[in-house]
Amino acid sequence: MNPQTVVVTGASAGIGRAVAVAFAARGATVGLVARGEEGLAGVAEEVEQAGGRPVVLPADVADHEQVAAAAQRMEDDAGPIDVWVNVAFTSVFAPFDQISPEEYRRATEVTYLGFVYGTMVALRLMKARDRGTIVHVGSALAYRGIPLQTAYCGAKHATQGFHEALRCELLHEKSNVHVTMVQMPAVNTPQFSWVLSRLPRHPQPVPPIYPPEMVARNVLHAADHPRRREYWVGSSTAATLAANAVIPGLLDRYLGRTGFRSQQTDQPHDPDSPANLFTPADGDRGHDYGMHGIFGNRTIRFDPQLSASRHHGALLAAGAAALAALIGRRSGRR
Length: 334
Hints:
By secondary structure, the chain is of the alpha/beta class. Helix content is 48%, strand content 16%. It is built from eleven helices and 13 strands. It has helices spanning 14-24, 37-50, 64-78, 101-129, 150-173, 191-194, 212-224, 235-246, 248-262, 304-308, 316-332, and strands spanning 5-9, 29-34, 53-58, 83-86, 92-93, 132-137, 177-183, 186-187, 196-197, 201-203, 209-210, 230-232, 264-268. The strands form four sheets. It has a seven-stranded parallel sheet, sandwiched between helices. A two-stranded parallel ribbon has the order 5-9. Strand 1, helix 1 and strand 2 form a beta-alpha-beta unit. Helix 1 (14-24) packs parallel to helix 2 (37-50) and helix 3 (64-78) runs parallel beside helix 4 (101-129). The longest helix is centred in the middle third of the chain and has 29 residues, at 101-129. The radius of gyration is 19 Å and the shape is globular. The termini are far apart.
């Protein structure tokens, strides 16, 4: 494969950073879009160490003009963009009635409209050449809402609908530009240390928790095989999506009972912790948070669904049965 020209939004940390480094390991030139100066400097160094060429593109994805300017700088520097990966997001961990209209708007503009603007810019360039791939990094929460994450779940649901509609249009046009979406499980990223939180205890991902490098490989596979509408990464994602399709009402009640406790650690929330909603936590007054969060000792290293998700056998029925049995056992003990 010839070295690719790739743009990754949200590249300064977490999954975006892992995706950027994974493309770099294949010799790609990687455009790094994010707000935080420290995080961008850190990922640029890692991309170079992995064998790629970084192009640092500071931009706020909630601003269409900034995204368009970043894309043009990338093409001027590195040539036509082959792959555009939308990853950037922000959110608020809080019950719905504790989120202000301004906070909700900002979370939606970044997490949903950031994907829309990135796609607009990339599609305009790619359609002119009739080639290219756009990858949306989604979540199991694109299908299944959970408590304390109304802003994030709403944005991911919106992204899923936008993705499906756009894909239909490209199929109608018989375009050689492709879009695909990768639905993620819980991942050990810094988001739990810098997303605005009003929870009494420190937020956490709901296990099983995956390392960013592991799920990034599936993003690269999706970019290489974009004709498939979407990919589900991890057995927990497949089980959640399947159970939501089969037993949504039971899942609502189960999450209503367990969803508050399971998303918080035993440690009290630090009221002075950073929040990246309006300003980057890894900006010039912050520090580089890196690729990983604080839950590394709880991440899993193997999941057969991670391999299965790169094929059409998604273990959907098995996941639904397993989760239904788990919910049934827990409900029976209450």
